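To whoever is covering the structure queue this week,

Two jobs came back overnight. Logging them here so there's a record in the thread.

Job A:
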Amino acid sequence: MKKSITKTKILFILLILIIGIIGYKNIPVQSNEITPVNDEKPQKNLGIPTEIVKVTKENLVEKISYIGTIQSKETVLVSPKIPAEIVELNIAEGDYVKKGEILARLDDSNIRAKLKTIETKIEKTKINLEYLSGEEEKYKILRDEGAIAKSVYDKIKHEKDMAEAQIKELYATKDELIISLEDTLIRSPINGVVRTLNYSVHELAMVGKPLTIIDDVSNLLVKVKVSESDLKKINKETSVLLTISGTQQKVRSRVSKIMPSMNPKTRIGEVEIADLELEDTNNIVLGSSVQAEFVINEENNTLAIPMDSIKQLIEFDIAQDDSVFTLQMVNNMTSSVLISILLTILIIMLFISAVNQSLVVSISMPLVFLTTLGLMKLFGMKMDLVTLSALILSIGFVVDASVIVVENIMTHYNDLNKDIVSAAIDGTREIAVPSISGALTTLVVLVPLLFIKGFVGAMFRPLSLTLIFAISSSIVIALVIIPLFTVLLNKFKLTKTEKVIEIFSKPFNRMMNSLLNGYVKLLKLAINNKGKTYITILILLVLSGRFLISNGIERH
């Protein structure tokens, strides 16, 4: 029975190895490689075929073609002027809006309530002012006739003046509230297309955080990156034929601006083409690609020889090739993975002097990576800088479960005097639930990263998915494969090799034991002095918070 179980496990290992090798061989390395049509240098002085052909007069045009992007000359950020809840949103990304059109409406109930209160106060103050004005007239006559003292009249006059000042202040407050009421209606300042939308209904609009960005599509331009060699052939009057992708509109224009600066590494400059006379701008997506054909030379009514009668010797120049940098980075990351694995094996050897146990743990790493690569291939993932970074990060995780399983098996074998098969079964069963629980706590943290949208999601999704594959594979291999290898390799006693390893591991273990003893003393000291420990923790917490406030927060 045990032999049949062993055969099944061996077949399972072989299956994992095959899947992993197939995945590793088939996972493409993502790069920005530019494939030239003809990478060979043309031979010189081959001559021209001497074939007799009919020559006609044609208009000959020499062009150079590039891909640019279409952008807006005017972009407006529309922000709320007052903080309030958004109760109505009339736009979506990509919508065309007209100048003055209401984009959103903020909650104005609070402002209207204040306005109503102010209007009530104005009415009451008007009544009071009218009464005081009449009283002033009466008291003035009495003062002139000497019937009352001047101070009595001055008091009435002062009350009337205060009422006039109060009513002016109330009217000023009313005007401010009317302006605030108008600010609850967010309108479009220009005709254009909504690029982004940063709020949704019932969110609190904040002053300074834009509601949307609107691009003026009636005033567009095209920016094209051009190599240094071709940039010398272009000037500000060069004619350009533009073909806008998605609409197939063809527009003829001229170069309006050549940027004076050039990238010192790539030797690539930028050309701007403005004043585009487009028939339809509603279907144009800003940021979309545009094919730009620069007419650098044009000959009208000249003799033309058919192109098919001349052998074409074409040499292509690559304007920009990012593949060299990308492949170099991928190679460096691959080397980092191998170095990390070797360093991990070295640390395992120092901690676990037994060679067969160290080999069992070390074997788990390539098995986990092969399984991970197979799962990546199954889910259509590519081998790039992000996934390689995830593999490097996962090296520490993948050996944790294996080390714990091996150590627990050897505890049952050495301390409890069980045979190796029973020790493997009992030791793995004992540690299975804690190992799975520990892995799940990490996986739960990684799962939310899979649902992030946008550019950040595109970066974190492959990273988190690769880590999920690696950690899940490490648990399966630790609980299924590692016990089998522990049993198989236990019979091999490499005494001489272990003696060589002990030369290096004994000083290392003495250092670790000293560190452990120091930690135990510090722990006892903290337990025996709880009050001082709490005060020290509190002081460190305050100091770290102070350091974070003074150095860790970016200020504008």
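Job B:
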Amino acid sequence: MMLHLPKYFRNTLYFCLIINKIVLIKMNNSKIVEQLSHFQQTWTLDKLQTLSLDEYTNTLPTESFCYWIEHKLDEIASIKGGSSYKFGIYKRQNTDTLFANNQYQTDGIYAWLKKYGATKNEAFDTIRQHIVAIVRAAQNKQLQLIDDIDIGTAIKWKIAFSYAPDIIIPILKTEKIRRIVRLMGMPNYQQATMYHMQQFLCHAKPPTQNTLDYATELLGEYEHAPFAEEEVNNYHQPEQNFWLLAAGEKGEYWQRWIDENIVSIGWGFTGNLALFYDEQAVLKCLIEAKYKDTKPTNNARACFDFAHRMQLGDYVFAKRGTDTLLGLARITGNYEFSETSLPHQHLHTVEWLAIGDWKVSEHLPIKTLTDVTPYYEQMVKKWWEMITDTELSDLPTFELIKTPKLEKNDHLVPKNANLVEKTTPKPIIISKKTTSLAYTLAHAMADLLLPQATFEQLLRLLQHKKNLILQGPPGVGKTFIAQKLAYCFMQQASTEQVITIQFHASYGYEDFLQGFRPNEQGQFVLQQGIFYKLCQQAKTQPNKPYFLIIEEINRGNIGKIFGEVLLLIEANKRGQNHQIALTYTPNNTFFVPDNVYLIGTMNTADRSLALVDYALRRRFAFYDLVPQFNETFKQYLTQKKVSDALVLHICTHINQLNQRISNDPHLGKGYQIGHSYFCNPPVFTDLLTEKIWFNDIIDAEISPLLHEYWFDQPDLVEQLITTLVWIG
């Protein structure tokens, strides 16, 4: 074994210790191979398909599937520790703990993630289907499918490795593998999925070396390597940022934040911060208005960051003083300026995930607002785990939309928190003046590749039919266009009146309209679904349009989800004159207001989907979106500093490929390759990084599609891929 260790390891005692550890681990690898063989014989695919809840959970600790994955196979990429929610469902040891959260559910004995189902049986059925899908993908060497399966990253890739140890490197925690591929020089490592990072490591693995020895070597070389100076701040770049925000002096605004589901800052005399386009402009305003003899740089940065850098989906730790954390929230609303909400007039609406009172050992920054994302390893992970009692290794993915307000105690409440008593939720008492910037057709067309005439036609169809479905192959920008249609229709870039959801096989009437769900006390109570809430909100403001964007609309059982309301979404069946009683509230009536619009998206290349219900087709306008490898696309890539040679290569060869796909009688236009795959190039430092970026897309994203399209013609696929690869 030849190790190429960094210079700071060479000729040191640390180097000797690492080598010793590697030798010991390699001696255990033969034992691990035996364990894997025993595991695969015990938990066959046939057995998993009929797996019971007892066989899955830790209720039978020496026999259960979860026990095998976490403990018996512990020497392989350990996933010990953290929350038992990583398995989706588990049997509780302490049944006295209070549950008060909008993500978790319990029946007193079992606890599970609500997204998997309303009951333990529904949840486990969903989880079992996910596990079967993981195993099939691993055994069929279709690893690209695993990223999209809705289970925590470490656990699903541990399962996948256990069934396909020859093609997966057993380094499965996201932050650990991301650091390794970064140090190995992987381009675009920040955005890489686990599949992409696995592919990168597999390509770098010597052909004669097994994955266990290779993982041992990588961990020995990189896991404990000292951080380079620039790496401390840059190596972790999550999609969401993390902020530390003071709740006023001595936490004086904390109760208001809880009551109104907001976070806020002062300096209201600046007026609307959205009108300031850089930090220096804010600083100048502060000096002229108040700080004549000082230079309030930190205050200016706080104002600018609060309005321009804090984004939907970011997380906020609330603090009091320099030693206490008060809560954790996720931002659900864009920046707003309220003329009446004195003295804190700058606002974001939030969803409170946890509230309490936690002392911290470190000295918190004195300044009002701090971006703590660069201190992810040193502070953020520790705070998160202290407050939520869960790991941050698999950060949940959220729809970045404004969600309905939660009741006060619908939070994740850890054991040491000061619990908030359950009360009727208070209304928002501030009078808000919208600060959403005007959004016109010109704004929409600024970064759209569609012809303007097409976009205008879509607006007319939406106006006339009120229900529109955008369908097309992957990568044509269906969701992107749907959002722009909503903004242009509202004439403002705001998510205040837009909700996005995704249909799936388990989505039902109860999620969409209303149904009985168990509460924390185990009692079944009537709860309203997302479309019901949207309609009720729209009725209060009939002059404002409201939008529901439904991703993957054909993945759901339309009759089951819409029920009797399928009639009411028709354009000529809107309004109070067509109100009807719903299944669960026969004594009350319901109608869909005129100002509610539905936009669905549909992937025409998904073979697993059934044909769309004809009842749905009659109520929606359908529009086919096609790839746009045109002159506008060429100009767009040129503006992104992509070389002329590569721009020409992309447009020429992808158009040729799409023509071949269209002409294939078993495929057709619905299976073409969309332009969105190439719409987010990084800043290239040289032609080599540009070449790597493009060829990575071909290898990791386009190639798997082609192998699926022509699964029985591997030679043809290899020929097509060879043509697509850019030599430069």
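Note for Job B: Residues 1-27, 95-100, 226-238, 394-436 have pLDDT under 50 and may be disordered.

Please reply-all if you pick these up so we don't duplicate work.
Q.
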